[in-house]
Amino acid sequence: MTTPSSSSLLNTDSNQTIAFNSQECARARRARDARFDGLFFVAVKTTGIYCRPICPATPALEKNVNYYESAIGAAQAGFRPCMRCRPDSSPNSSAWRGNETTLTRAISLIQQGDLSDSSLQALAERLGVSDRYVRKLFSDNLGVSPKQFALYQQCLFAKKLLQETQLPVGDVAFAAGFNSVRRFNDAIKQQLSLTPRELRKQALNAGSDISLQLSYRPPYDTASLMSFLQTRCIAGLESSDGVTYRRTFVYDGGKTQVKGQFCISPSLDTPAFDVTIQLEQVEVLYPVVQRIKALFDVDAPIAEISGHLQSVLGDYFEVNPGLRVPGVWGLFETGVRAVLGQQVTVTSAKKLVTQMVHELGEKTTWFTHKVDKGFGEELSNELNYFFPTPEAVLGSDLSFLKMPGSRKETLHRLANHMLNDADPSDIDRWVDVKGIGPWTVNYVKLRALKDPDVWLAGDSGIKNALKKTSDDSSRPLEADDLKPWRSYATLQLWNQL
User: Fold this and answer.
1) Which structural domains are found in the chain, ordered by start?
2) Where are the alpha helices (DSSP H) in 193-271?
3) Distance separating alpha carbons of residues 436 and 438, to the nearest angstrom
4) Handedness of CA 449, 454, 457, 463 (dihedral sign)
5) What is the separation, in whole angstroms, between the first and last Cα of the chain?
6) pTM of the predicted model, to two decimals?
7) What residues contact residue 197 under an 8 Å CB cut-off, 6+ apart?
8) Distant-in-sequence, close-in-space partners of 482: CB < 8 Å, separation ≥ 6
9) Is the distance from CB of 390 to CB of 332 less than 8 angstroms?
10) pLDDT tens sequence for the chain (497 residues)
11) How many angstroms separate the Cα of 196 from the Cα of each of 49, 202, 455?
12) CB 387 within 8 A of CB 356
């Protein structure tokens, strides 16, 4: 079977254009091809249910099927989600987002809970556009308003919690961002055509920890990503054996800071990660899960990415089709790691970051007594630090760090910027901080913001890889040929060293 193509099919019932023709969709669902999981959804007219293309149920006759590019498109057409394949668990599709940067960032901010905490006007101001323009972007690309999109995402996440955990219904409601159980019940019924009670019948797991599955589209080189993280693991903050990764974190939602930890490892029988999460407050579970998904790049349209990169890089070396971009938990942490990594080896940078965590990070015993599934006592005791806050860095002279004073001053200025800038998430403004140049800004965009098209032109690893490819070929490699997936090209080039 071929990978996704650029042909299109117009669904006559919804006027929603999807990126494959009917024959491709039919072959994919009959084969239950996981590479297409999340790229389109199958709606069965005779049952009123929509499914993932990998649904284990007996495939419906083609004449009884409609195809939709997004779950919300199927829901808006009146179909309810399948209870067996759970469309809420499929990887997010990026195909329908196109290359519209504003839309992509708006979706990311909404998934992080922006519309739960503020108005559409405030969201538009963060994006640098009008609220009318944001509405038009969502209407033109998704057929729904930003509020409708946010509500549907909340409902899908709540459905996942109802079916995969034993959290009380009230906790599920608050974890999904609803302010009341009544509002939660009404929204679930309206958006999914099912009640919370009906969804709860298929709960899978029991226990005090929150255990979920995060699906991805294969291929996925989990060994490479885990090795990347393991090489850079900070003792006390993170732990990895090359297969399982654990870390502590602080989620800063603006109004409140919530501490937690998670454990993640590849599932043995399905293209997914098994993740177990512990949180002080369940209300922030949704954005925390989104952050973990970004950290492991589970929603990348990998077939499209690897196909494009192979067409460009294939003349120089064989592309690894499952290579993903590993993330970092937060903006400030990424910036600190980047500054401490300037002009030193990975090993030296890791030593400096470890010193900072142990000197300035809040020490915790919160996890030491947690011995539930996924967190053994010995391993829990290893995770006894949180990453330092900007306040802690700004309040220290950093004398324990053996590095030039100018770099320490850069850390102070970065911490001050994070505390006092009106929008520290506007990474382009970081260049106003003395000591932070384009390379650091781009590195943060690549690792923390997951920008798919970042090119680290001045990176020594990239230079060495490009020199190697140039030596092996008569035609020099042009960075522009790698657009719009230069972040992934960066990982491919690093992989050649």
Assistant:
1) 9-87 (3.40.10.10), 96-200 (1.10.10.60)
2) 196-200, 222-231
3) 7
4) positive
5) 33
6) 0.81
7) none
8) 308, 309, 312, 313, 455, 489
9) yes
10) 344 433 333 343 433 445 667 888 999 899 998 888 888 999 999 999 999 999 988 989 999 999 988 888 888 888 989 988 888 888 876 544 444 678 877 887 787 777 776 789 888 888 888 999 999 988 887 778 999 888 988 898 999 889 888 888 999 998 888 889 999 999 999 888 888 988 887 555 444 588 899 999 999 999 999 999 999 999 999 999 999 999 999 998 766 789 999 999 999 889 999 999 998 888 889 889 999 999 999 988 898 899 999 999 988 888 999 999 999 999 999 999 999 998 888 999 999 999 999 999 999 876 543 434 444 444 444 788 999 999 999 999 999 999 999 999 999 999 999 999 878 888 999 999 999 999 999 999 999 988 889 998 778 888 887 777 666 555 677 888 899 999 999 999 988 87
11) 17, 11, 46
12) no
Long-range CB pairs of 476-479 (<8 Å, 24+ gap) are 477/312, 477/313, 477/316, 479/455
Residue 322 corresponds to which tokens in the numbers above?
Answer: 């499952």
Site of tokens 């760090």 = 401
At 466, list the tokens. 């490009």
CA distance 408 to 402: 10
Answer for the pair 291, 251: CB distance below 8 angstroms, yes or no: yes
Starting at the edge strand found earlier in the chain, the sheet holding 65-68 runs 65-68, 41-44, 49-51, 80-81
How many Å apart are CA 8 and CA 6, to the nearest integer? 6
Cα distance between residue 173 and residue 169, in whole Å = 6
Would you state the structure tokens that stand for residue 101, as one six-digit string?
Answer: 């940067």
> In a 3-state reduction of DSSP, which class is residue 257?
strand
